[in-house]
Amino acid sequence: MSTRQETGTATAHRVVIVGAGYAGMAAAVQLAARMKRREGVEVTVVNAQERFAERMRLHMTATGQRLAELSIPELLEGTGARFVRGWVTAVDADARTVRTDDDRVLHYDTLVYGLGSVADTAAVPGVEDHAYTLSSAQDAELLAERLARLGGGTVVVAGSGLTGIESAAEIAERHPELNVVLLGRTEPGAAMNPKAKAYVRAALDRLGVQVRAGVEVVKVLPGAVELAGGESVTADAVLWTSGTRISPPAAAAGLAVDAHGRILTDAALRSVSHPEVYAIGDAAAIRQGYGVMHGTCQGGMPTGVHAALSIDRVLKGKQPKPFRFGYYHTPVSLGRGDAVVQFTRPDDSPRRICLTGRLAVRYKETVTASPWPTYGRMKKMPALGALWPRGGRFTRNREAK
């Protein structure tokens, strides 16, 4: 008996969305809201946890701060979408099935692939065994427990990107008894304008964070990290924020991927090898006029919405439109009372304008808190989710069709 016959809707078009992060939730809410009054379309959302992980706040979770409990099933109530809790262990792009860790098999006609990135713990020896990550709320909570047990000592934050900066600042502020060392190949805030970069460095200095730029961690040991050149830095805890990798089911499914494991897409966010699969967020290699997008919430949510709009158009017998997106800011928290916001051109290069201090804190908090209420508004008025900066000339791709 086929899955369609089992559900009693033999002609239903089955849309399965795997991953309910920022991009996946945007796709799920947008599509479910648009399909709510349409017969013959089933929307299923698959995620490992019922709790929505606010990845933009995981550095807060890692220091023991309690966050709101955001329930994915509760948000989906009234949309008609079905929620399935389970780890996605395999996708068969030819058979059009998704398998979860409890051996459940879900059949799809259209798949939205939103299994995003996690910390790359395989690239450097010892990371998997001896370092903490912020790949999930559970990972962040493990670090919080470790930090709470330390009465002193050194915490090494490996990686001087935005996650590393925010984590080092948060740990130093919440745990002044700890020595926090931030290690990275580049200076913190290297992509910002000189004023914003200097502000970041001054804030880290004020918090007592020891910054060492131009170094590379080549091994993580039980009580230290080893740098290129042979030097060791003592560490009672190591937080790894240097590099990410994409969840492996995409490549294993036979989908065309790039060197980083991201699904190659056409202009409408469809897999170039399997057009019934849409890739969104960190999982997708989305090319714009300025190059391939990098993973952020500001870009991820629009990809999810656009995938939903594209599916809606295809089901109506229309052609999907090309996706275009331009960056507009880089907000970075520096503890609870300080922040910097670097405004950017659509290609993510820094503008001369930036915010600092309390005004930047309010701006950053507004941005961080915005996804959940945005999903709620989309349930009632899905068109509200289809508004984002298209980027003008920066995002025009001559190859897009």
Features:
4-stranded parallel sheet, 5-stranded parallel sheet, globular, 401 residues, alpha/beta, disordered N terminus
Question: How would you characterize this protein structure?
Answer:
There is one protein chain. This protein has 401 residues and is α/β, with parallel strands linked by helices. Helices cover 29% and strands 25% of the residues. The protein has helices at 3-7, 22-35, 58-61, 72-76, 127-130, 137-149, 162-174, 194-206, 249-252, 297-315, 357-369, 371-380; strands spanning 13-18, 41-47, 82-85, 88-92, 97-100, 105-107, 110-113, 117-119, 154-158, 179-184, 210-213, 217-221, 224-227, 232-234, 237-240, 244-246, 263-264, 277-279, 284-285, 287-288, 291-292, 329-333, 339-344, 350-356. The strands form 8 sheets. The chain has a 5-stranded parallel beta sheet with strand order 3-2-1-7-18. The chain is globular and about 65 Å long. It starts with a helix and ends in a 21-residue tail after the last helix.
Spatial order of the strands in the main sheet? 3-2-1-7-18
Oligomer: single chain
* N-to-C span: 40 Å
Strand content: 15-25%
Contiguous helical run count: 12
Tell me the Rg in angstroms.
22 Å
* Residues in helix, %: 25-40%
